[in-house]
Give the backbone structure.
Amino acid sequence: MGNTHRKNVIIVGAGASAEFNLPVGNQLKNIIAELSDIRFDD
């Protein structure tokens, strides 16, 4: 992660994410899918 020319993404486990009011589970899946133009069959 020391490369300053690239953007990095860190994904933490649901327990840590939820504690900081970050999206988890289906909400996180839907946000990633929307930003990545990925579609899921729900």
In short: The helical segments are 14-19, 25-36. The chain is about 45% helix and 0% strand.
